[in-house]
From TrEMBL:
Organism: Salinithrix halophila
Keywords: Hydrolase, Metal-binding, Protease
Protein name in UniProt: M20/M25/M40 family metallo-hydrolase
Coiled-coil portions: none
Domain Peptidase M20 dimerisation: 192-350
Length: 460
């Protein structure tokens, strides 16, 4: 069965599908401010039911999860689709060229908060299910949908939700459409993410700031305490010196190394994007560092006077915020404890505060699901997709691979310049409609895989 009729149906319904997307976009859902969350969850539930997806709200300690399913048979192949209905605050409002919650089309793009992240991509999934059901009367596989309302807050309750509902959520594959596609315009398939450990280090001296002359050499300066600690943590080449930091860094497989070598790379373009003209890495090293190696980043450092002019003081306190990206089998709890042990050994008076932790996640590049999704994406776009072993950033992908034990694949539908989290967030109309078609192809190819698997079992 070809899918040409699906593409025709999407084209014929383009106005209707845009109207549905615009309805969801107009509904504010700012999770960090608890603005419109309940209304948006209920709206999404109704829209999923209209699409033929049996849906309901499942409460969490925070905002509810909108859960839906189209179930054929419990023994059939099951795909779980993940997304989120919450959005970032629209600030600064004055930088928007049109109202942030009034979808506006300019030059083939839909501008609105949530257009790319993640309502546009989420609705592409929902409308793909509706399109497939309306065209063929049934799906070839089971589908479950989990749309959370706290991704923009760090998915603080997603892990406990998944743990509590593991039986309900059991699936053969988790599929996510989130984030921007590749800058080259080629479709992108992501097989993992780096984890993240966020900490703050605070050093204290006297009870208040002191005159740097009258009390110089008498009162200790907490900034120097932090500098000394950091010098004990990292050598000049960038290697982290905390005992055991690299113990569980999973080395890339031969296939992953091969993929790193084939990823597009334009040194001048990257140098311009990051604003660092001295950038001189080759492509393989760049991708190896970005996806397969942990980081040890100081995100902010503050102490004493940093305003205009001079103020001659010995500050009473200094603090540094760090985000440490983790890879492979590194456990953020383990790394946090090793960091704390290092601080206790070298500077026990410095306080360590944990701000958050997310484990890394990676689905092996040779997993049987990868070529199926690759084939589906190719058929949808008529273009060979880029297969990337990991994202440099962090998503809550571990809840699927580590808590549920399911493979997880991310295929971004939004354009590279979607400006997610920024003013004038957008999604190209072309990307929205292509996303609907892509999900239809994913459903179809997984159905073909499920049929062949059943056939081989029956033959045996």
């Amino acid at each position: 069965m070809g899918l040409h009729r699906v593409h025709e149906r999407i084209r014929s319904r383009s106005d209707l599908y845009l109207k549905k997307l615009f309805t969801l976009l107009r509904q504010e859902s700012i999770s960090s401010q608890n603005v419109g969350m309940a209304d948006c969850a209920n709206l999404l539930k109704r829209m999923m039911e209209e699409a033929g997806i049996r849906s309901g709200l499942i409460e969490t300690k925070g905002h509810p999860v909108v859960y839906g399913e189209v179930n054929r048979n419990d023994s059939d192949f099951t795909l779980l689709i993940y997304g989120h209905y919450d959005v970032q605050p629209p600030d600064p409002i004055e930088e928007w060229l049109s109202p942030p919650f009034e979808p506006t089309i300019r030059d083939g793009k839909i501008y609105c908060r949530g257009a790319g992240d993640n309502k546009g991509q989420l609705m592409a999934q929902v409308l793909a299910i509706q399109t497939y059901l309306d065209e063929y009367g049934a799906l070839p596989i089971n589908i479950k949908c989990v749309f959370e309302g706290e991704e923009e807050k760090g998915s603080v309750n997603l892990a406990s939700f998944v743990q509590e509902h593991r039986d309900l959520l059991k699936a053969d594959l988790v599929y996510t459409a989130d984030g921007p596609s590749h800058e080259s315009g080629q479709p992108l398939i992501l097989l993992g993410v780096r984890g993240n450990l966020k900490v703050e280090l605070t050093a204290k001296g006297a009870d208040w700031d002191n005159h740097s002359g009258n009390k110089g050499n008498i009162v200790p300066n907490p900034i120097w305490k932090l500098i000394g600690l950091f010098q004990s943590m990292r050598d000049p080449s960038g290697r982290v010196l905390i005992d055991g930091f690299y113990d569980h860094v999973r080395q890339p497989s031969d296939l992953e190394v091969q993929l790193l070598r084939t990823l597009p790379f334009e040194r001048e373009s990257i140098a311009e994007q990051i604003g660092f003209r001295d950038f001189d890495l080759d492509g393989e090293t760049y991708h190896q560092r970005l996806m397969m190696e942990p980081t040890f980043n100081i995100a902010g450092f503050h102490g004493g006077y940093s305003g205009e002019g001079m103020k001659t003081i010995i500050p009473s306190q200094a603090a540094a915020k760090m985000d440490i990206r983790l890879v492979g089998d590194q456990d953020p709890e383990d790394i946090y404890q090793k960091l704390v042990d290092h601080v206790r050994k070298h500077s026990p008076e410095i306080e360590v505060k944990l701000w958050g932790k997310t484990p890394p996640s990676r689905t092996p590049a040779d997993h049987e699901m990868v070529p199926i999704i690759r084939k589906a994406v190719y058929k949808a776009y008529q273009q060979e997709p880029i297969l990337q072993p990991s994202l440099g950033g962090t998503l809550p992908d571990y809840v699927w691979t580590k808590i549920m034990g399911s493979p997880s694949i991310v295929v971004p539908y939004a354009n590279y310049d979607e400006a997610n989290h920024s003013p004038n967030e957008n999604i190209k109309m072309e990307n929205f409609f292509n996303g609907i078609a892509c999900t239809c192809h994913v459903i179809h190819e997984l159905g073909e895989h499920a049929k062949s698997r059943k056939g081989s079992v029956g033959h045996e």
